[in-house]
Design a protein that fits this description.
The complex is a heterodimer.
Chain A (H helix, E strand, L loop, with lengths): L11 H7 L1 H32 L3 H5 L13 H8 L3 H32 L5 H10 L5 H14 L6 H26 L3 H8 L4 H30 L2 H6 L7 H7 L8 H21 L4 H5 L7
Chain B lengths: L3 H13 L1 H5 L2 H34 L1 E2 L8 E2 L3 H8 L1 H34 L4 H14 L2 H12 L5 H10 L10 H29 L3 H9 L4 H29 L3 H6 L11 H11 L3 H25 L4
Antiparallel strand pairs in B: 1-2
Helix pairs in contact in B: 3-14, 4-14, 5-9, 5-11, 6-9, 9-11, 11-14, 13-14
Classes of the chains: A mainly alpha, B mainly alpha.
Chain lengths: 293, 311
C-alpha cells in the first residue's frame, strides 16, 4: 500500500493509467482510507441524523441515511419538557469555573516551576503530573465522605473542586511547556530595566504565552465537560451534568432515541468546535505537553 | 518527566547569573513558593489526603450508610483476594486493557504510517477526521454505539443482514461478544489518539534517512524496522503510557453499553469498585480496592516510564 515507489503521488492518476499494478495499489490505498474515514465518522453522523428524523422514520426499517424531511421536534422536547438547558448549564459552570480558577493559580505555578529554582522542583513537577495517573474512583470514596460531612455533596461547587484534579495538572504542564520555550532574555532585560519579578511575569511572560494558556484552558475544559464519573458520584437531581442526564434517560425500557440523539449532539457540539479550532495543539494537550507538534 | 533536563539546565543558568538577580533575591525566594502554594495545596487535598484516608479506611469495616467503623486490620484485603468476583473483575480488566490497547497500538501505528504517506490536501482532511472520535464525550460515544447496535432499530444489524446476509450477533447479551463490543467501542474512540501521537513522531524523522535507504535499495520492511521503528519508539511509549493509564479507569462506555454485564462479564475493576462503594456502600472494602487499583496503575505506568527512560 505504500507509495514510496511512485515518483509523485500527486500525479498518481496519470501514472496509474500507464501501470495497472500501481493503479490497483492506489485504489486499495484510497479505498482503505475511505473505509477508515467512514468507520470514524459514521457513528457521529448517525447520532446527529437520528436527532433530526421524525419518530416514525427512526423506528422503521430500512433506515434512512440521507433522504428524509428533517424535523426539530426532538430538540424542542429536549429543551422544554426535559429542561436539558439546565444540565448543560451545570456542565458549563463546573467546567468553566474549574478552568478559570486553575488558570489563575496554575499559570504562576507553571512559571515558578519553569523559571525559578524551586528546591525539588523537578519532583514537585513530576508529582503534579502523577496526580493525573490516579484512578479517580480510588480517591473518590474518602472524598465523598468528606464532601458529605461538609455538605458539598450534590453541589456544583463540590464537583468543581474535584474537577481541579482534571484541569489543574493539565494547565500547569501545558503552560510550563510554553514558558520553557520562551527566551529568558526577555524577562531578564525587563528586570534590568527596573521591573520586579511579578511585573516581568505579568507584563512580559503572561501576554507572550497567552495562546498557550488559552489552548491549555480549552483543552482542560473539554476534559472537564466530558467527565461523567465524578458527577455520577457527587451530583444528583438538579445538579446533574449533561452526560449524567443522558445516562439516566437510557435506563428505561422504551428509549426516546430521537431526543437522546439531540441530547448527545448538543453535548458534543462545543467539544467538537473547540477541538477543531485547537487542532494543532490538541495532541500536545492530550499528552500533557509530552508530544510537541 | 519529559524535558526536565532542559528545564534543569535553564534553572541552573538562572542560578549562575547571581549578580543580575541579587537585587530581588529575597522576594524571589518567597515568590516562587507563593506561586506554587495554591496549586500544590489543592492537589495535595485532592490526591494525598484521600490516599492516606483511603489506606486508613481500608483497615476498617466502614459502612457508608452508617456511622459505625470497626478496625478489621487486613481483613478487607484478604476478603477481596479470596472473592471470586474480585478475581473475575481483575481478569476482565486484563482482557479489556490488554486486547484493546494492543489492537489500538497496531491499528494506530498503521494508520499513522498511512497518514504520513498521504499527500496534498488529504493529510489535513484525515487529521481532522482522526481528531473527532477521541474528543467525543464518552457518554455520547456509548450512546452512539448503543443506537447503532440496537436490536430493533440498529443500523449495524440492518447492514449485516442486508449487505452480508448474516445473522447479526447479540452485541451485549453473550459474555464474550459483550466484551468484544466494549473493546470495539474503546478502539473506535482511542485509536485516533495513538495515530496522532505516532504521527507527530513520524513527522520528526528526517526525510534524508528515507532517501538514503531508497538509494541503497532497502526493502520496505527493513526500512520500517531499522529506520521508522527506532525513531518512533519513544512516541509509541508515550502513547502506551497514556492509553494504559486511561484504560484502567475506563468506566463511562462500559457503564452505558453493558453496565458490566451480562452477569459480570465486562465488570472491570473500576466498575466493580463503583458497585462496592456506591451501590453496596461498603466503604472499607471499596477503599481497599481503590488502593489496589491505584498502586497497580501507578506501578505499571511508572514501570513503563522508567523502562523507556522518559523521566
Amino acid at each position: 500500500m505504500s507509495t514510496r515507489n511512485l515518483p509523485d503521488i500527486g500525479s498518481a492518476v496519470t501514472f496509474a493509467t500507464e501501470n495497472p499494478r500501481a493503479a490497483l495499489a492506489t485504489a486499495i490505498k484510497y479505498g482503505a482510507g475511505i473505509i477508515v474515514a467512514i468507520w470514524m465518522l459514521f457513528p457521529i453522523y448517525w447520532m446527529v441524523t437520528v436527532s433530526i428524523q421524525p419518530q416514525e422514520v427512526i423506528m422503521n426499517w430500512p433506515p434512512r441515511f440521507l433522504f428524509f424531511t428533517p424535523v426539530l421536534e426532538h430538540y424542542v422536547t429536549l429543551f422544554t419538557e426535559q429542561n436539558f438547558g439546565r444540565y448543560l448549564f451545570n456542565s458549563f459552570v463546573v467546567a468553566a469555573g474549574a478552568v478559570l480558577i486553575s488558570v489563575i493559580i496554575g499559570v504562576p505555578a507553571a512559571y515558578s516551576l519553569s523559571r525559578m529554582d524551586v528546591y525539588g522542583g523537578h519532583h514537585i513537577g513530576f508529582w503534579i503530573l502523577s496526580t493525573r495517573m490516579i484512578p479517580p474512583l480510588s480517591i473518590m470514596v474518602p472524598l465523598f465522605i468528606f464532601f458529605s460531612d461538609v455538605g458539598l455533596d450534590r453541589s456544583l461547587l463540590g464537583l468543581m473542586i474535584v474537577h481541579f484534579l482534571i484541569t489543574l495538572p493539565m494547565i500547569i504542564w501545558i503552560v510550563k511547556g510554553f514558558i520553557d520555550e520562551l527566551p529568558q532574555s526577555l524577562e531578564e532585560s525587563a528586570m534590568v530595566d527596573g521591573c520586579n519579578r511579578i511585573q516581568a511575569f505579568r507584563e512580559i511572560v503572561v501576554p507572550l504565552v497567552m495562546p498557550g494558556i488559552a489552548a491549555a484552558g480549552f483543552i482542560s475544559f473539554i476534559f472537564s465537560w466530558n467527565n461523567f464519573l465524578l458527577a455520577l458520584v457527587l451530583t444528583g437531581g438538579d445538579t446533574r451534568t449533561a452526560p449524567l442526564v443522558i445516562q439516566s434517560s437510557m435506563g428505561y425500557l422504551s428509549i426516546n432515541w430521537g431526543m437522546l440523539g439531540a441530547a448527545g449532539t448538543v453535548t458534543v457540539l462545543p467539544v467538537v468546535l473547540i477541538s477543531l479550532a485547537l487542532r494543532n495543539h490538541l495532541v500536545e494537550g492530550l499528552t500533557m505537553g509530552a508530544v510537541k507538534q | 518527566m519529559l524535558g526536565t533536563k532542559y528545564v534543569r539546565s535553564r534553572l541552573d543558568r538562572v542560578g549562575s547569573r547571581e549578580p543580575l538577580l541579587n537585587r530581588i533575591d529575597i522576594s524571589d525566594r518567597t515568590l516562587k513558593w507563593l506561586f506554587l502554594l495554591p496549586s500544590v495545596a489543592i492537589l495535595a487535598f485532592l490526591a494525598i489526603y484521600p490516599f492516606i484516608q483511603g489506606i486508613w479506611m481500608s483497615f476498617h469495616e466502614w459502612p457508608l450508610a452508617a456511622d459505625t467503623r470497626t478496625w478489621v486490620g487486613l481483613a478487607n484485603y484478604e476478603a477481596l483476594v479470596e472473592s471470586e468476583r474480585f478475581l473475575g473483575s481483575a481478569r476482565a480488566t486484563v482482557v479489556f486493557t490488554g486486547v484493546s490497547v494492543t489492537l489500538e497500538l497496531i491499528l494506530g501505528v498503521a494508520l499513522a504510517l498511512y497518514l504520513r504517506s498521504l499527500t496534498g490536501n488529504w493529510r489535513p482532511i484525515f487529521r481532522t477526521i482522526f481528531i473527532l472520535p477521541m474528543v467525543m464525550t464518552p457518554i455520547a460515544t456509548g450512546l452512539m454505539w448503543r443506537l447503532l447496535l440496537n436490536g430493533q432499530i440498529g443500523v449495524v444489524n440492518w447492514m449485516i443482514i442486508n449487505f452480508l446476509g448474516m445473522t447479526p450477533p447479540s452485541w451485549t447479551s453473550s459474555p464474550t461478544v459483550a466484551m468484544a463490543t466494549v473493546i470495539m467501542i474503546d478502539i473506535w474512540q482511542w485509536t485516533p489518539l495513538i495515530v496522532m501521537i505516532v504521527y507527530a513522531g513520524l513527522l520528526s524523522i528526517p526525510e534524508t534517512m528515507y532517501e538514503a535507504a531508497r538509494v541503497d535499495g532497502a526493502p520496505k520492511l527493513a526500512v520500517f524496522r531499522h529506520i521508522t521503528l527506532p525513531q518512533i519508539k519513544y512516541m509509541i511509549g508515550i502513547a502506551v503510557v497514556f492509553r494504559l493509564m486511561r484504560s484502567f479507569r475506563s468506566f463511562d462506555i462500559i457503564w452505558l453499553v453493558t453496565n458490566g454485564g451480562p452477569g459480570t462479564a465486562t465488570e472491570i475493576l473500576n466498575i466493580y469498585l463503583y458497585r462496592v462503594a456506591f451501590v453496596n456502600l461498603q466503604g472499607g472494602e471499596a477503599a481497599a480496592l481503590g488502593i489496589i487499583l491505584l498502586v497497580v496503575t501507578i506501578a505499571i505506568t511508572m514501570g513503563i516510564i522508567r523502562g523507556l527512560g522518559m523521566q
